[in-house]
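Homework help board

Subject: predicted structure for assignment chain

Our instructor gave us this sequence and asked us to write out the predicted structure in token form, then describe one feature. I got the tokens but I'm not sure how to describe them. Can anyone check?
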Amino acid sequence: WAGYALCTTTAVKGAKANIGLDHGLHWIGVVATTPDGKRCFPVGTGLVSIEPGTYKLRLEALPATVLEGRVNGPLASSSWIGLFLPDGRPLPVDMRGLKWAHMAELGALGAFAFERVPATEFELRLGSEADISQGRAHKRMLIDPPLAAPLVIDLQ
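My token output:
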């Protein structure tokens, strides 16, 4: 892969915006806040090819929450946490530096944290990095986070 990336931030008030794009490859995304100032989970198209024409695109942003937790017991020192949608696809999270990460290595004392996850149902998987990447896990837990406060999980 060779080339460059250009990131433009444009605040849009209201529900609709018209954007003019040159033909080529683009990633179209939204980072939004609720009317009371809470951040939403970022949503985007992925890389798409735009040809001349008129397109209509609808992106729906979900409220976001913080996910923090700790794993206790023998798995706490060498495990990873993975987040997956109910259909088994990895949950894309963590927009720091535009890096999508759905897995995190446990820190000291088995702690983990995801700064922003969508406030919707997902599956948390605990296991080695290789196991989680291949769809296996030592432990699975279905999570339906609340909208208001950070979600704190304690796994035994």
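Reply (TA_rk): Your tokens look well-formed. For the description, you could write something like this. The CA atoms of residues 36 and 63 lie 11 Å apart. That's the kind of observation they're looking for.
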